[in-house]
């Protein structure tokens, strides 16, 4: 099967999040049949919820659609390296493949920091592909934080 990246949809969600005054991170979940079953941007401020990261919200939508707390065979695209909380949730949801954009040296939990998927307590490790659409994701984050200073 031909690989079709859905990162452009995650970048759209990140842009929309910036427009709401949220940190510009977006995520989409793709079902095993290739459908978009979850898409979200950060909404931590809007929802007054520190767990309302794009990945969590997109997985909640996908789980509701699947009627299950697990998403085997699903792919998750996110514009920024997941934090430890989201990485753990991705593992618990049994996401098959994780595609992320920019690296996050400050708060990332996949390639740096706690490296959640490399920990022996991590029972499900997705395939991980990094750097997808990274330059646009980075630019959005830089612009966002520059504007707030
Ligand atoms: Zn997160």
TrEMBL record:
Catalytic activity: adenosine(34) in tRNA + H2O + H(+) = inosine(34) in tRNA + NH4(+)
Cofactors that this protein relies on: Zn(2+)
PROSITE patterns linked to this entry: CYT_DCMP_DEAMINASES_1, CYT_DCMP_DEAMINASES_2
Boundaries of every CMP/dCMP-type deaminase domain copy: 1-111
Keyword terms, alphabetized: Hydrolase, Metal-binding, tRNA processing, Zinc
Keyword DNA-binding: no
Binding site for Zn(2+): 53, 83, 86
Catalytic EC class: hydrolase
Keyword Zinc: yes
UniProt-annotated catalytic positions: 55
Cofactor binding mode and count: Binds 1 zinc ion per subunit.
Residues passing through the membrane, by range: none
Enzyme Commission number(s) of this protein: 3.5.4.33
Family the entry assigns: Belongs to the cytidine and deoxycytidylate deaminase family. ADAT2 subfamily.
Subunit text: Homodimer.
Functional description taken from the UniProt entry: Catalyzes the deamination of adenosine to inosine at the wobble position 34 of tRNA(Arg2).
Name by which UniProt lists this protein: tRNA-specific adenosine deaminase
Upper classification of the organism: Bacteria, Pseudomonadati, Pseudomonadota, Alphaproteobacteria, Rhodobacterales
Gene: tadA
């Amino acid at each position: 099967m031909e690989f079709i990246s859905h990162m452009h949809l995650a970048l759209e969600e990140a842009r929309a999040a910036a427009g709401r005054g949220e940190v510009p991170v977006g995520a989409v979940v793709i079902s095993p049949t290739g459908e978009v079953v979850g898409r979200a941007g950060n909404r931590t401020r809007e929802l007054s919820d520190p767990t309302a990261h794009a990945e969590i919200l997109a997985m909640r939508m996908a789980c509701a659609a699947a009627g299950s707390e697990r998403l085997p065979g699903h792919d998750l695209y996110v514009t920024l390296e997941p934090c430890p909380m989201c990485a753990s949730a991705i593992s618990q949801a049994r996401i098959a493949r994780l595609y992320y954009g920019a690296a996050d040296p400050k708060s990332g939990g996949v390639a740096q920091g706690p490296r959640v998927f490399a920990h022996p307590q991590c029972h499900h490790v997705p395939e991980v592909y990094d750097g997808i659409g990274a330059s646009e994701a980075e630019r959005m984050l830089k612009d966002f934080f520059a504007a707030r200073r």
